[in-house]
Amino acid sequence: MTDSVDVKTLTIDGHEVSGRRGQTILEVAREHDIDIPTLCHLDGLGDVGACRICLVEIAGSSKLLPACVATIFEGMDVLTNTERLQKYRRNILELLFAERNHVCSVCVSNGHCELQTLAQQQGLTHVRLPYRNPQLAVDASHERFTLDHNRCILCTRCVRVCAEIEGAHVWDVMGRGIDCTIISDLHQDWGSSSCTRCGKCVQVCPTGALFDKSKIGSDHPKYPDFLPYLKLMREAQ
Amino acid sequence: MTIEELDQIAQSVRAVNAKFDYEVNVCMGTGCLSQHSDQLKDALVKEVEAQGKNALIRRTGCMGLCAAGPLVLSDPDEILYQHVKAGNAQQVVASLGARPIPELQCELREHFDQQVHIVLENSGHIDPERIDDYIAHDGYRALLTALNDMTPNGVIRQITESGLRGRGGGGYPTGLKWNTVAKAPGDVKYVICNGDEGDPGAFMDRSVLESDPQRVIEGMAIAAYAVGASKGFVYVRAEYPLAVARLTACLREARRRGLLGNNIGNTPFNFDVEIRLGAGAFVCGEETALIASIEGRRGTPRPRPPYPAVSGLFGKPTLINNVETFANIAPIIRKGGRWFASIGSERSKGTKVFALTGKITNTGLVEVPMGIKLREIIEVIGGGVPGGHKFKAVQTGGPSGGCLPAEMLDIGVSYDALVKVGSIMGSGGMIVMDDTSCMVNVAKFFIEFCMTESCGKCIPCRAGTAQMYRLLTRICEGEGTMDDLELLVELSDTIKSTSLCGLGQTAPNPVLSTLKYFRSEYIDHIVHKRCLAGVCDIHAPLSETGAHQEVMA
């Protein structure tokens, strides 16, 4: 640590904690074993603040801040689990479940799905919104992996890991609004794309949207833990 | 280029104009052009030659009263003719110096008398593509004064003193924004002009860019001097081809005159402007999405902070202002911040340009002092609702704004007053609705707009607007329930509080404001299965009481 390090003290859910200048609320909270639920955030990837699950309240401000990108300041009073936030988190999850075709019982990720786990943690028991049931394709053209758009929540982890870590930038988002779709290269089949077959996107995918063909019918846990380590080693070089 | 040289140009323009006995201005904004005012201008030129009159026929920008186009203004008699066709050219030219033509004359004193023109002062009076015309109307005097006689800080002080607030909708104090960018560390900074006007029914920025583009460029140059930038971008939608063409011509002229480029006004100040075309995404009007779009990336917003003032275009401190904001700068520098602050209301200074559309007699562009009552804009300047219909609501602020009923017409137009009643100032679109509009259907229209224009990055906006659209469609078709209404309110709250950018945060406003002021219409659709405006097609069987009896009662 250098001398220029500036330490800030703040309160998270009543606990007095401290962090370095420039750290995000999420980093400081997790360092102090305070859990803030996240979905699009993944340790080792750049943050986009898109899923809005990690929104937290700051005392004295009506504006909610995404903990994954908002940086701390001195004297900040953060509330991570108020009733208002719990309601919003459940509503957002509800929106996700109704958006595409999420059927846990037939999903390869059943039991290992971050969306499913999050819904259980947040106490989402049923969906009041009408299911949209869109007709979506499955891209099974790749020899090792499959992309099932029905289960995609557009968190863009695959886009980020491919661009930031693998450096191939095969994945991107096409269209806008409710019609957004993950595409490979310039909207061609995954199998004929410039994919390097590294499989990182499959490991970081929070749901069963990206999965390994060899795991169909068996347990398919994912291991995104290589990322922080990989990033650390790269930065050390 | 020095102020003396500007004076010389202005004098020579005036000398040329003085040679003519009459000046005839023909509006060639998009509205009048669509009614062939270009043919009208050619016919007028031919006719002047044929009749041997010593008259100058000038192409100008928008004169404001689009409903009455094509418009022709003849000077020095100041007679305005409306609905002029090429076939009327002979009449119009013959009337110069003679008796005006009564059947073509536009007599709308109250429409023009209530207006105060600052942004539109040159619109309809100068040829937008001739820089000399602009210079003859005090153009670029403010820039050269700022460069020669004022410090960057002095410029910012004037802007702060003027109380000017961002005209793009948010109403952020312009002086404060400039100050933040000026103080941000870094030697490379950018100035961006946001011309991605996308609100349905809004055309203020288009008109300014078409009628007086030099004014925007001058405002940007002054801003660049104040914050220490040397490069500017105008982000304008590709759907505005005429504005782009005139802007391109105007940049060329300004470079030729040495008013853009290196060592402007023989000072060390360098500045140039590039045009960037928007590809039709509404969300690119949001500043961080706009920056991404200029950088060549997908136009999606990113969380702020960091604000563009600290880290914007290519990671450099960036000043983003709206077209109309920049159009206000030159007059403020010329006449002083105090003069500007003397116009308008307590916390909203100056004037605001509104695009009046919908069920209103005088469709077009108006510029009014802040604080003016909505009723005056709609009933006096706008001429009221035509066809004997009854006024029902006015929608301000585009898809982010709200619908205000007749009871709210007596509030003064200002940023704070409009927010207080559940709408926003927005960029200046004003859509008037009469009793033939169904407010549920209007809310559905705006939610559909937000749904299709959402970038899809954050979940509440992407999936939430789609669900709201679904619920509203059900209500409009007579299949909605009171539970749907409750769900609609809860979704509105979630989307408003949790969305990433302004688009999502304000998307539920049309629903919330119509629910606040026109709740009975929702109940009508849900409980009584009827749409009194007759807009929604409700197939559901009527209840036993019978809708007819209730209408009679």
Provide structural commentary.
The complex is a heterodimer of chains A (237) and B (553). With 237 residues, chain A is α+β, with helices and mostly antiparallel strands. Chain A has helices at 25-31, 83-99, 114-121, 157-166, 200-204, 226-236; strands at 7-12, 15-20, 55-58, 64-66, 77-79, 138-139, 145-148, 171-174, 181-184, 210-212. The longest helix of chain A has 17 residues, at 83-99. The radius of gyration of chain A is 19 Å and the shape is globular. Chain B has 4 domains: 17-108, Glutaredoxin, CATH 3.40.30; 138-341, NADH-ubiquinone oxidoreductase 51kDa subunit (Rossmann fold, 3-Layer(aba) Sandwich), CATH 3.40.50.11540; 351-434, Ubiquitin-like (UB roll), CATH 3.10.20; 439-548, NADH-ubiquinone oxidoreductase 51kDa subunit, iron-sulphur binding domain (de novo design (two linked rop proteins)), CATH 1.20.1440. Helix content of chain B is 43%, strand content 13%. Chain B contains 24 helices and 13 strands. Chain B has helices at residues 3-18, 30-33, 37-51, 89-95, 109-113, 131-136, 141-149, 152-162, 174-183, 204-211, 213-227, 241-256, 287-294, 323-335, 337-341, 374-381, 415-420, 439-453, 459-476, 482-498, 502-506, 509-517, 519-526, 547-552, and strands spanning 22-27, 55-60, 72-75, 79-81, 190-195, 231-237, 272-278, 318-322, 351-358, 364-369, 391-396, 402-405, 429-434. Chain B has a 5-stranded mixed beta sheet with strand order 10-9-13-11-12. In chain B, a hairpin with a 3-residue loop joins strand 3 (72-75) and strand 4 (79-81). In chain B, helix 3 crosses helix 4 (89-95). Chain B is globular, with a radius of gyration of 25 Å. The A-B interface holds A 48-52, 55, 64, 66, 69-71, 84, 87-88, 91-92, 95-96, 98-99, 128-130, 132, 153-154, 172-173, 175-180 and B 281, 283, 298, 302-303, 305, 451-460, 462-467, 470, 487, 490-491, 494, 497-500.
